[in-house]
Amino acid sequence: MAKAPTDLPTSEELPGSGSAVRGLAVWMVIASAFGAVFLSLLTVSLVREHLHIGCGSGFPGSEGEGSWMCWDGIGYLGVLITLGGMTVAVTIIGGFVAGLTRRGRVARTVLVVLAAASVGWVLIWTWYGSSALVWSVPPGVQSTDYWIASVLPAAVVCGAGILSAIVGLVFRGAGARIVLSVGAIAVLAGTVLQPGLAISTLPAAGLLAAAAVRAPRRA
Q1: What does each of the 219 residues of the chain score in pLDDT, given as a tens digit?
Q2: Phi, then psi, of 17 in degrees rounded to 5
Q3: CA-CA distance, 13 to 105, in Å (whole number)?
Q4: What are the contacts of 171-178 at 24+ separation with CB within 8 A?
Q5: Rounded distance, CA 6 to CA 2, Å?
């Protein structure tokens, strides 16, 4: 009597580790990164025009009262490099993980961690810039007030998306796909609320979408 094969892939490996599935996950990561590059100039607008990072307001009674004096273009190129560097890193690592890691659970975990790092990096850096790199503000205003007004609503939505994705790691099968997809949609919604964060949040949404793709169709 022939012996039953002992090396059959598990249900965790079969539906979420096929080459077509892995290829789709990779393209989600890459496409979201290209979208972030396309929208990267909105980051400069957010940082300069809304958060006033690298700027100072004219003192009351001075000739420049009511106007902002800011860094030149090279200063804001540094901002793009600082934030874009994380995007490049998570895209490269995420692309390899989405395409080469056969174990779906491992791939999903790493992709969610990378998405959380991408979102966390842009939120932490913009908060730091708002608190430390705004040279002067009008009387009665705190520099971080601009961050609260411009970024906080999107930060809450994106944070909820990341939390949903983390919870999604507990699920298997269709449940994991649904919860991870909800996380990706929430991060995308946060990006719509504040497009200036897209340089980091759009790749995060792509990473979460790739994680959802890598979830098996059945537990």
Answers
A1: 444 444 444 444 444 457 888 999 999 999 999 999 999 999 999 999 999 999 998 765 555 566 889 988 788 999 999 999 999 999 999 999 999 998 989 999 999 999 999 999 999 999 999 999 999 888 889 999 999 999 999 999 999 999 999 999 998 888 999 999 999 999 999 999 999 999 999 999 999 999 999 987 665
A2: -125, 5
A3: 9
A4: 171/215, 172/12, 172/215, 172/216, 172/219, 173/215, 173/216, 173/217, 173/218, 173/219, 174/215, 174/217, 174/218, 175/219, 176/108, 176/212, 176/215, 176/216, 177/212, 177/215, 177/217
A5: 12
Residue with tokens 């902002």: 68
Per-residue tokens: 42? 């909105």
